[in-house]
Write a structure and sequence with these properties.
single chain, Rossmann fold, 7-stranded mixed sheet, 10 helices, 7 strands, P-loop_NTPase
């Protein structure tokens, strides 16, 4: 290998390692937060997701993925699997496969070589939980785990989609809708057109059109693969024109449309006179990785700001609730006191009504002044007892009901909750500080790579 290529390889490897580290660090901050020994104020073992999900905040928060998801779409024999094999430097995907191969295959990096089938793939990639709505999809899901460290593969998850063909081909699931669903969950979409196959088949064009009608415009890039399969320049130009004309009516911003052509470098290393834009494919992947790192760092900062804002909101709401609780408690006590007074008066009326009879039986009990008073007012009470007693009973019941309806307090934070809220703030601020450090380290790595 030439010295310049060795140097470039070393730089690429260092950059890929730094990028992978940043993406993993971001995911770690969501899962487990900062280490105790990090030296950051408020450092601990609680991550942003746990803080957001706490009983004090009750927020919905998803952590960003550790890797960039790249979906490759194209007709059968468009070179999707061959490109993946070339990129990772390993023959992990079968090529030249019969059309009957109709599933989704995820190609990701790991510590050991493994193959996962449907259910295991669903567990490995948690964002696939909604993918089960497509009947027949699970038996056609696969994951190939490779130990390769080629290029930026450590930061990438490739998704090899079913080859699209026309005719009587029947897929075991709705292939077009499945691809569109997957497009919602990936960072980059590469569309490959085969110059000697069914590049402009109806299914491929329908998928392209639907992708363009969705919110995916910025992450779709088109390439004509296997350019070396057409040796004559005028034949390649004819195929390019044909593909471009077919796409023109189906894509937005067609005036800025670009269709680079590429092919895989030959095993013998022999140079070819045919222009090869394979580095442009790699650059799009690198750009997507860089954008994802920046997006994840930005999301980390925004989520920290959301948590801090939520802490302020819930604490302010708690103060309002406590003030309202005090108000309704005082109102409830006032109404309850009124009910007690009405009840006491009603008991007094009952005592005045029955006291003469009691005194006739036990005269010695009626010598007290307050008892004599009850005996004296007893005739008046007897005369108006039904009216006055009824009114007092109604008033007492009404006040009791009003007290019960009014005296409803909202749940508020106790001292333990408020302490936990302060801890959430401290940890979140420490994570925000770490986000700034990660940003600086990442851009330092980029600037060194450019020198």
């Amino acid at each position: 290998m030439a010295p310049s290529n060795k140097k470039k390889g070393a730089v690429d490897e260092a950059l890929a390692g730094a990028t992978e580290k940043v993406l993993k660090e971001i995911a770690k901050l969501y899962d487990s937060g900062l280490n105790e020994g990090s030296g950051k104020a408020g450092a601990g073992t609680v991550g942003l997701r746990s803080i957001a999900d706490s009983s004090q905040l009750q927020m919905v928060m998803r952590k960003p993925r550790k890797k960039v998801s790249i979906m490759i779409v194209g007709n059968h024999s468009a070179g999707k699997s061959s490109f993946i094999n070339w990129y990772i430097g390993e023959q992990i995907q079968k090529t030249g496969v019969a059309i009957e191969t109709r599933g989704f295959t995820f190609v990701t990096s790991g510590k050991k070589r493994e193959t996962l089938t449907g259910d295991a793939t669903m567990r490995y990639f948690d964002f696939l939980s909604g993918f089960t709505k497509f009947e027949g999809i699970i038996p056609n899901l696969f994951t190939e785990i490779s130990t390769s460290k080629e290029k930026n593969f450590l930061c990438v998850d490739f998704i090899d989609t079913p080859g699209l063909v026309d005719g009587d081909m029947q897929y075991p699931f709705d292939v077009q809708e499945a691809i569109l669903w997957m497009a919602e969950h990936v960072d980059l979409i590469l569309v490959f057109f085969d110059p000697i196959g069914q590049a402009t088949c109806k299914r491929t064009m329908q998928v392209v059109e639907k992708l363009n009608n969705g919110p995916h415009l910025e992450k779709i890039h088109y390439f004509m693969s296997k350019a070396d399969a057409v040796e004559k320049e005028h034949d390649r130009q004819r195929v390019l024109i044909q593909i471009t004309q077919n796409l023109a009516t189906r894509i937005r911003n067609s005036h800025a449309f670009n269709l680079p052509t590429f092919y895989l470098p030959r095993d013998d290393g022999e140079a070819s006179a045919i222009p090869n834009a394979i580095e442009e494919v790699c650059k799009e992947i690198d750009k997507s990785i860089n954008m994802t790192v920046q997006k994840n760092l930005r999301l980390l900062k925004e989520d920290c700001e959301r948590i801090l804002a939520r802490c302020d909101v819930v604490q302010a709401e708690d103060k309002v609730k406590k003030a309202r609780n005090l108000k309704v408690t005082l109102q409830g006590l006032a109404l309850m006191s009124g009910a007690w007074v009405a009840g006491a008066l009603l008991l007094g009326l009952l005592a005045a009504r029955v006291m003469p009879a009691v005194c006739r039986v036990a005269d010695h009990m009626c010598q007290a002044t307050h008892i004599q008073t009850l005996v004296r007012i007893s005739p008046a009470v007897q005369e108006h007892f039904a009216l006055v007693g009824g009114v007092l009973l109604v008033v007492m019941v009404v006040l009791l009901v009003a007290s019960k309806l009014t005296w409803k307090t909202a749940p508020v934070f106790n001292k333990k909750d408020l302490k936990k809220l302060d801890e959430h703030r401290a940890v979140t601020k420490a994570i925000m500080s770490e986000e700034s450090d990660l940003y600086q380290k990442y851009f330092d790595t980029l600037s060194h790579a450019e020198r």
